[in-house]
Q: What sequence folds into this?
């Protein structure tokens, strides 16, 4: 018999996930009746990923890493990434308010809304939030606002380097006709941009975000290189250092095929070093705006299988994870495939290799009332049974935190978890599951709930 020894420290995302699923079942967080769907964030994973980001960039370079709030805008999540030394990129008044609620200082924020209103610009500039201007008309609005002295905001122009599209058109922002930024190669624009800088001593930054999932590293790096070349041209024309910093945006893609971080932040820095060596010389202050690459792989959703059936020979598992928490995957399954990991009712993995018996091609359906509400089609898995769990990994960004209110389904609970050296899991509730009353409250409309159609104050005729 073996002698007891101290349990090894738990490392590895997949191992922590397995332990968390098992522990969540034991803790009642995946109650078949009350909470059949829940989301989980791996705190150790987030710490590792943010540490890897900080470590990937050359020491001594002035780099501010910001988290793109749209990737997961739950205020406790923003607070968490703030604790790991990140700033925050926001793209709407709501995201700006969420970032402030999470404790960010205005000077840690970058505002990139594509359609900024006058009040939005005024508030950002008054608070000292960095602003990236999207177009010539917006620049004229900013002109009027910076005339009032005192703003400490860094102000830059968002450049579309028009280097081309990635694999997912909707995620590609640097096509020749993208809706974002100043189109650098359009007739006359390069000269107008240079002149805009020459005429405005307060205009000191350039911004570029080539795009997200589906954009290869060398495409993004080519976009950054084009902006570095523009910065050099502006400085040369000004005869002085005019461009103080370059914000290179986000968009490092995520690997949805397995648990590896691929590409890694070091791959991104290597691609930038090769394509845009001028970026890393220390001449410019730098900002990054990463979203999915920081959080996607550190979160997962788990759903009970409510029913299973066959229909026309097709095996279908009906679960609670559908379009309301996986909109992109449901609407564009080819572009956004997710893994489906099967667990039994107790939360133990049902790995195909460990079980005798063949796998069966199954559709994993969500709870919504339309036929296309499937998170996977024809997936080879051990035959699922009611009460089993399906886990959707890599969903820490842009999934449960970006819900779609179809069928008035509630937002699921979000639990953070930590695994100690003995394999014990501790959960912290970050966001409770919405109740039916919450759902009603957000759809109530203007009529007082208590007023009857013929009530004393209701019938004025
Ligand atoms: C969405 C977005 C990001 C973050 O993109 P990820 O692919 O999540 O890294 C960064 N900057 C801007 C301007 C964005 O719109």
A:
């Amino acid at each position: 018999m073996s002698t007891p020894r101290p349990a090894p420290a738990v490392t590895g995302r997949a191992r922590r996930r397995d332990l968390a699923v098992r522990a969540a079942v034991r803790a009642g967080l995946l109650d078949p009746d009350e909470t059949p769907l829940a989301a989980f964030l791996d705190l150790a994973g987030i710490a590792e990923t943010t540490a890897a980001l900080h470590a990937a960039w050359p020491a001594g370079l002035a780099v501010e890493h910001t988290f793109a709030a749209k990737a997961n805008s739950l205020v406790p999540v923003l607070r968490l990434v703030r604790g790991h030394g990140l700033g925050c990129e926001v793209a709407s008044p709501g995201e700006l308010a969420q970032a402030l609620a999470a404790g960010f200082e205005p000077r840690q924020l970058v505002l990139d809304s594509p359609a900024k209103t006058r009040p939005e610009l005024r508030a950002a500039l008054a608070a000292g939030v960095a602003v990236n201007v999207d177009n010539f008309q917006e620049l004229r609005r900013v002109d009027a606002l910076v005339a009032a002295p005192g703003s400490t905001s860094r102000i830059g122009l968002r450049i579309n380097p028009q280097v081309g599209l990635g694999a997912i058109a909707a995620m590609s922002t640097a096509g020749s006709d993208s809706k974002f930024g100043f189109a650098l190669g359009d007739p006359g624009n390069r000269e107008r941009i240079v002149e805009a800088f020459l005429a405005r001593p307060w205009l000191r930054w350039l911004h570029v975000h080539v795009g997200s999932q589906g954009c290869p590293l060398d495409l993004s790096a080519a976009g950054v290189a084009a902006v570095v070349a523009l910065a050099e041209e502006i400085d040369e024309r000004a005869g002085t250092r005019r461009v103080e910093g370059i914000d290179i945006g986000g968009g490092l893609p995520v690997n949805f095929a397995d648990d590896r971080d691929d590409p890694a932040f070091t791959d991104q820095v290597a691609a930038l070093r090769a394509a845009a060596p001028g970026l890393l010389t220390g001449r410019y202050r730098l900002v990054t705006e990463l979203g999915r690459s920081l959080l996607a792989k550190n979160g997962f959703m788990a759903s009970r299988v409510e029913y299973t059936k066959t229909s026309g020979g097709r095996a279908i598992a009906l679960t609670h994870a559908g379009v309301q928490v996986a909109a992109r995957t449901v609407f564009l399954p080819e572009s956004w495939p997710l893994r489906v990991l099967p667990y039994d009712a107790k939360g133990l993995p049902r790995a195909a290799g460990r079980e005798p018996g063949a796998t069966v091609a199954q559709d994993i359906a969500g709870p919504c009332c339309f036929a296309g509400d499937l998170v996977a089609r024809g997936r080879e898995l051990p035959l699922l049974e009611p009460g089993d769990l399906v886990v959707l990994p890599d969903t820490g960004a842009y999934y449960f935190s970006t819900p779609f209110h179809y069928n008035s389904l509630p937002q699921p609970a979000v639990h953070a978890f930590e695994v100690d050296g003995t394999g014990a899991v501790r959960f912290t509730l970050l966001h409770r599951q919405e109740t039916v009353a919450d759902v009603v409250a957000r759809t109530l409309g203007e009529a007082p709930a208590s007023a009857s159609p013929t009530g004393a104050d209701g019938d004025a005729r």
